[in-house]
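Recap quiz, item 2
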Amino acid sequence: MRYNRQQQVVIFVALTLVLVGCTSRTKEVIKEQYVITDIICDRIDSDQKPSRDELQKFVLGTRATFDILKQKGKTISIDVYAKASTLSDRINNKEDIDIEELRQFVKMTRDAYKLLLGEEK
Amino acid sequence: MSRDEVHPTNPQEEMPNPTPEDMKDPTFEAIWQAVKTWDVSCPEYYSGYCGMNGSHVKIIYDAVKNVRTKGLDEGWFDQMITRSTESQNSPITVKDRDGSDLQVKITNAVIEYMVANRFMILKAGRDTFKQFLYLCSSGQDLAALKLIYQKMDTSILVNMYADNAVKLAEIYKQDQETKAFWIQMATTLGGKIISLALGSII
């Protein structure tokens, strides 16, 4: 079975579209994650301080996100990735975590996303 | 405690009084007719029970009015979605912060975003949403997202964050499945091409 020029073009275009579609969907979610992190960071510095529970939930979500992004070959700073892993393990083990440590982590996460999006602020 | 023996629980705040306009509204009258024989407790203002009066009706009336206003707020959203879908790629006019008119083009992607984030956009309000559209159409999507999320509570934001992590995991899973499909496809096609080539050589 041979493919003529037209069929080859159709296959090539379909493959490209699938690849582009997958990349842009991920980027869209990363963008949203970055914006949410950015706003939570701003709130930490303002009167609307997130509670410890909220911050812990945030850490667990971050760890899951970083794991996925790493598997997708995205560059995550080793420091922030290690911190996310350690903190989420400690939360899962019901260890007490200083709220200041959680806040520092949210700020680190914002910088990691900024780097990921190549966003100069 | 007998009827009408009440003590204020919040001396700083008095119960609201209906305005002459409120009393002309048939809704106000309908509420009054339905509840005028009741004895009620109102812990936000007093302890104990007393007969219904205009202030009680005013509290219920304002609550009903708020629900109606919210309904109208959702109306503008639906209208905008319909208008945007009908006039795909033709610009609509929105007001900028300084009051000048801006031409905004609503793409399919923005319409999808609007539908998916209905709750968030309604919370942000109409004027903020117009700014959002403007930023989207000028390619400043990060600033646009920030504008919408800015109006949300921290707890809702954190929940949204967790939801996004789940969404990302789903996308990743779909991508893996797509990749596996194409690898299988390429292997099958490659095998066929090689066997055809070998066949033609032999």
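Residues 44 and 50 of chain A are 6 Å apart (CA to CA).
The two ends of chain A are 54 Å apart (CA to CA).
End of item.
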